[in-house]
Amino acid sequence: MRILSGIQPSGTLHIGNYFGAMQKIVQAQEEGELYAFIASYHALTSVKNKDELKNNIFEVAANFLAIGMDPEKSTFWAQHDVKEVLELYWILSNSCSMGLLERAHSYKDKTSRGIGANHGLFSYPVLMAADILLYDSQIVPVGKDQIQHVEMTRDIATSFNHLYGDILTIPQSKVDEKVATVPGTDGAKMSKSYGNTINMFGSKKIIKKQVMGIVTDSKGLEDVKDYSTCNIYTLCKLFMNENELANLRDRYETPGEGYGHFKLTLLDQITQYFAPYATKREALLANPKQVQEALDFGAQKARKVAAAKMEIIRDAVGL
Ligand code: ADP
Ligand code: TRP
């Protein structure tokens, strides 16, 4: 079974990215033949600064390698190193109606938040379809917000196959309902665009500040508190086992502690969870050549598959 997913290098990675996407991608190495890439072309829709983009690409690569991406076992590359994807993007544009793109939630969301509409943003789902279809992907693990994009990929592939024959593999999205949406410090979906994130890695001072900023109700030390509606508890669920959670629930229901204490418990959990990965990441950041070599190796493997598929597609359309 071929599994493919990508993540945009569009900013500092947060625990929503980790639990919603990166962890699932790395785990997929045990479930099938994994193709994972850094969606660098997609990031051009939001990152307009050269150094920032280069740095983000490197960071995502180092983070993935740190959390267990194995470049020997899987194919792991940067999107812009396999240019066949742009050729397929153009070919697929001709099997994609304007109406389909106009209905994309992510495009509507972004433009409604004042992000200038341009063609890159509008046609983003077609490039994503090319990513998926170029490698005959069967399963695409994504966060909930990306399901529609995979649905659009299926529509585009179906239209293409209708015209040219059974050439493209129709993929399926896979969402882990348990962690479908990780809440941010304000309770809304954690997202770098909302400024409510908790970083995966980085200085303890910054992560502490983010955790201490989690919004709660105003109950005091002596009040009994409701864990079921509390953001701190929801985030703790990502890190704790059932015994630890039962213990935390007791603490909510026993007067004497405040939200500050629960936040420190969460902070400890986050730090402990990511500590082994953080050590590995530091070593990679100190050795950028190793990171680049891993990406180059992955691009070579991906290019072979992409070139073979493009020959079939070119032939099918008459090029
Ligand atoms: P952001 O919302 O911070 O801009 P991206 O859109 O770059 O994040 O998302 C990268 C990946 O992480 C996607 O697969 C997305 O579904 C996943 N993801 C982002 N935020 C969350 C979240 N709060 N909960 C679960 N998954 C998330
Ligand atoms: N759009 C995805 C995101 O924002 C990233 C992405 C690009 C992707 N191409 C993909 C994900 C192909 C899965 C498959 O998270």
Q: Class of the largest domain, according to the CATH hierarchy? A: Alpha Beta
CATH-level-4 superfamily name of the largest domain = HUPs
- What structural class should be given to the helix and strand makeup? mainly alpha
Question: Which regions contain 5 or more consecutive residues with pLDDT less than 50?
Answer: none
Total number of strands: 5
Q: Which range best describes the helical content: under 10%, 10-25%, 25-40%, 40-55%, 55-70% or over 70%?
A: 40-55%
What portion of residues belong to β-strands?
A: 5-15%
What strand order characterises the main sheet? 1-2-3
Order of helices and strands: EHEHHEHHHHEHEHHHHH
Give the count of structural domains.
Answer: 2
Which ligands, by name, code or SMILES, are bound? adenosine-5'-diphosphate, tryptophan
Distance between the termini: 30 Å
Number of helices: 13
**Outline, from the CA principal axes?**
globular
Could you name the CATH topology of the largest domain?
Rossmann fold
Major β-sheet annotation: 3 strands, parallel
CATH architecture of the largest domain: 3-Layer(aba) Sandwich
Mean pLDDT: 95
Rg of Cα set: 21 Å
